[in-house]
Amino acid sequence: MIPRPKIIGTGAALPDRVLTNHDLEQMVETSDAWIMARTGIKERRIAVPGEFTSTFATAAARKALEMAGVSPVDLDLIICGTVTPDFPFPSTACIVQSNLGATRAAAFDLSAACSGFLYGLSIAEKFINGKAATTVLVIGVEVLSRIVDWSDRNTCCLFGDGAGAVVLTASEGSSGILSTHIYSDGGHWTLLHQPGPGNRTPASQELLDNGERFIRMQGNEVFKLAVRAMEEAAHTALSANGLTVADLDYLIPHQANRRIIDAIGKRLGLGSDKLFVNLERYGNTSSASIPIALDEANRQGLLKENALVLLDAFGGGVTWASVLMRW
Ligand code: UT7
Fold first, then answer.
1. How many other C-beta atoms can be found within 10 angstroms of the C-beta atom of residue 144?
2. Other CB atoms closer than 10 Å to residue 275's CB: what's the count?
3. pLDDT classification of 11: cutoffs 50, 70, 90
4. N or C end of the chain: smaller count of CB under 10 Å?
């Protein structure tokens, strides 16, 4: 029998520092009304000096392990989805492994932008299905505030920092992950990217002067692609399992923009009571947004046993992904 991966613990960690839309009004020419109307975001959490990607990843992982009742030494694998690692190398996953004392685990980072956490779940599923791992920690974490241009009103109101994590284990029951689908279209890589520093654009004074270390996004184009891709991914996930939208108990989408989420809900014909949304408090935390939302939904007791839950993401690359599971 092929083991079915099941999430047995969730956790999240966010910086204490809150940056509101009113704070942003003091920094760039914008307004709370514009940001709320165009994005649905009210405030976001921002790391302070001394807080790093590994800080939040470790804290979220500890909470997920505690809920799961799993000791760090029982982890076989740690996958960390992030585009804002502590260092180019070693991986943030290795730093988390050391912080946790997860001495038996293999650990690596995964770069798929906002789809990073779902890509991580997909890899965890394959390891567990193939019996190469029994217990896996998957983290989505970002400190985007350090690659945001705080003088650019087009992007600075969108992003936030934080981490979410889950512990998965092999189970024999009918609940757990039913399917994962991951997709990329690198032809659109320029729509959402951080130009440097990197191998093509090494660190230099010129890079700093040109603002090339900051996120660049063609928001409108990304918006349109995101709605189409996430709707299609939702249909594919359901039909691959012989299910329909009517069977869904919860859709937990990537939290980038309230209008994107509402458009997907409308296209799918899904009631707003079945959409989990928390972006008004955290903004877009990229790979962390779905695991933070999943942890909130879980701790609020919204995910009843056997509930059908769909996770759906879209991000830079461009990448997109879905994970369908029975809770
Ligand atoms: O995480 C995965 C990927 N990311 C996303 O999914 C994000 C996708 N994109 C979006 O969420 C939206 O495109 C944005 C929220 C980024 C922008 O919303 P929009 O409705 O697409 O606005 P726009 O880019 O068409 O800009 C409209 C206007 C522009 O002014 P002009 O050129 O029409 O005069 C902007 O300069 O709004 C202006 N604007 C602002 N005004 C006040 C842009 N940002 C701001 C701002 N405050 N913060």
1. 27
2. 18
3. very high
4. N
Predicted confidence (pLDDT) per residue in 76-104, tens digit: 999 999 999 999 999 999 999 999 999 99
Question: Is the minimum distance from the CB of 218 to ligand 1 under 6 angstroms?
Answer: no
For residue 192, which phi and psi values (nearest 5 degrees)? -150, 105
CA 82/CA 143 separation, integer angstroms: 9
User: Catalytic site residue 80?
Assistant: no
Read off the DSSP letter of residue 47. Answer: P
CATH architecture entry for 178-326: 3-Layer(aba) Sandwich (3.40)
pLDDT digits (tens, 9 = 90+) for 205-239: 999 999 999 999 999 999 999 999 999 999 999 99
CA 154 to centroid of ligand 1, rounded, Å:
6
Task: Name residues whose C-beta falls within 8 Å of residue 98's C-beta, 6 or more positions apart in sequence.
Answer: none
Nearest residue to 38 (alpha-carbon basis) of 262, 312, 198, 216: 262
The architecture (CATH level 2) of 4-173 comes to 3-Layer(aba) Sandwich (3.40)
Provide the mean pLDDT of the chain. Answer: 98
Q: Which residue has the tokens 């307004």?
A: 31
Residue whose tokens read 């959490």 = 45
DSSP assignment of 111-157: --GGGHHHHHHHHHHHHHHTTS-SEEEEEEEEEGGGGS-TT-HHHHT
C-beta 150 within 6 A of ligand 1: no
Q: How many residues in the chain? A: 327
Domain extents in the chain? 4-173, 178-326
Residue in 94, 114, 156, 157 annotated catalytic: 114
Tens of pLDDT, residue by residue over 179-208, are 999 999 999 999 999 999 999 999 999 999
Atom 4 (ligand 1): residue with closest C-alpha? Answer: 256
Alpha-carbon gap, residue 50 to 302, rounded angstroms: 34
The pLDDT of residue 1 is above 90: no
Ligand 1, atom 21, lies closest to the CA of 220
